[in-house]
Every structure is written in structure tokens, then in C-alpha cells.
Design a protein that fits this description.
Largest sheet: 4 strands, antiparallel
Low-confidence stretches: none
Oligomer: single chain
Strand content: 15-25%
Number of domains: 2
Number of strands: 7
Shape: elongated
Distance between the termini: 41 Å
Number of helices: 4
Strand order of the largest sheet: 1-7-3-4
Helix content: 25-40%
Length: 214
């Protein structure tokens, strides 16, 4: 079971060796929200859904099937027997904050398999009821939230009359430590993930026919 907002806040405060005095619940919540936004821009959840074909129809709204959809990865003609789904040429676009795709050639029947991305969510954050990050991603998010929380703390102290230069340097050093841990962790996480494909592309980069008809 992945962790809730309350549990993640506690972990951020533990890593910052704080009891909530300097890094309050509100500060940690804002830091986790900012970090999660960055994660969702760089490593969202890969999802898929099947859509019934409407004969001769070209345009389909993906957000009508899943309101969380952020971007389209692939559109395929669904193969119920051999799972050898066939890619369909399409164009995607947004209108009124809704996500659509338009087939270049209409289908007569069957199903369309749409592959797309949706955001990670944390239970308790912005009215969400489910936590989707893995235990591995939880730690990456906590590291990133620590960096964000330190940045907020440092920003709030900028105009303090007696703030010494050494204090600012310490904030930057601590923030840099957590930022590096976050960036390295997220980069490794992204490297280990692959979007689903119907048929792997085996073309070599130096093949004279590389990328033909793609």
C-alpha cells in the first residue's frame, strides 16, 4: 500500500529533522503538491482503454472515456484474438480542455485501443482518495518535497534583518542535497519504465530503410 498525504508529510518532517515547527503541515503539503506536479509532467502513469468503434466516425474524445487523460501515447485497432493490435494513423488535439484524437481513415466496426497518460495521485491531497505512486516513487517524491520545503523556508527568511550569509549558504547546501537525490532518483525511475507497444520496433539506426513509413 502506498502512502497517504499525512504519512508523506511525516516522512518529509523526519528527513528535515523537524517536529512541524519550521516545516509545517501547510508547507509540506505545498511542497508535496509542487513535487507531484513535476513528477506528473515527467513520469506520469501509462494507461489504456478500449473504445467501441462507431462506423465511419473519425473523431473520438478520450476524456469522455477517462477524464484524467493528459496525453495520448498511441491509438490502435484492437485485436481480441492474438493481441497483435494494429497502429492506426491519427492526429490528436485539445479543445475546451478536452483531449481528442481524429483517425485519418474511419473504421467500420470493432474496438479502438487508446493508450495514454494519467497523473499520479496522493490520497488526501486535493481531495484525492487513492495513492498511486509505488514505494520507490514515494521516496523520490519525499526527497523532492524536502528540497521544495527548504526553498519555501529560505524564501520566507529573505527579509529577516539578522539573517547571516552563512544561514543562506546552509539552506542552499541542504536544498542541493535533496534536489540531487530527487533528480537522480527520478531519472533512474524514468529510465526503467517503458510505454506499452503493440509490436516492438526492431529497425537499427543505420538501416537504410530506418523510419520509412513510420
Amino acid at each position: 500500500m502506498t502512502q497517504t498525504l499525512t504519512q508523506l508529510i511525516a516522512r518529509v518532517q523526519v528527513q528535515l529533522i523537524d517536529d512541524g515547527t519550521r516545516f509545517t503541515t501547510a508547507t509540506c503539503t505545498a511542497a508535496l503538491r509542487a513535487c507531484l506536479k513535476n513528477v506528473n509532467e515527467r513520469a506520469p502513469v501509462n494507461a489504456g482503454t478500449r473504445i467501441d468503434v462507431i462506423a465511419e466516425q473519425l473523431e473520438y474524445e478520450l476524456t469522455d472515456e477517462d477524464s484524467r487523460a493528459m496525453s495520448i501515447l498511441d491509438v490502435l485497432e484492437y485485436d481480441a484474438d492474438g493481441e497483435n493490435h494494429t497502429p492506426i494513423p491519427y492526429d490528436d488535439y485539445t479543445e475546451d480542455e478536452r483531449l481528442f484524437f481524429r483517425l485519418r481513415t474511419a473504421l467500420a466496426s470493432g474496438e479502438i485501443l487508446a493508450r495514454y497518460t494519467i497523473p499520479h495521485t496522493i490520497s488526501g491531497l486535493d481531495s484525492e482518495t487513492e495513492s498511486t505512486p509505488s514505494a520507490r516513487l514515494d521516496q523520490i517524491i519525499v526527497d523532492g518535497a524536502c528540497a521544495e520545503a527548504i526553498a519555501y523556508r529560505a524564501a520566507s527568511r529573505i527579509e529577516t534583518i539578522n539573517l547571516q550569509q552563512g544561514v543562506s549558504d546552509n539552506y542552499r547546501e541542504a536544498m542541493g542535497h535533496f534536489r540531487m537525490a530527487y533528480e537522480m532518483g527520478l531519472s533512474a525511475y524514468i529510465r526503467d519504465r517503458r510505454a506499452p507497444v503493440s509490436e516492438p520496433n526492431t529497425a537499427a539506426w543505420n538501416d537504410e530503410y530506418h523510419n520509412w513509413a513510420q
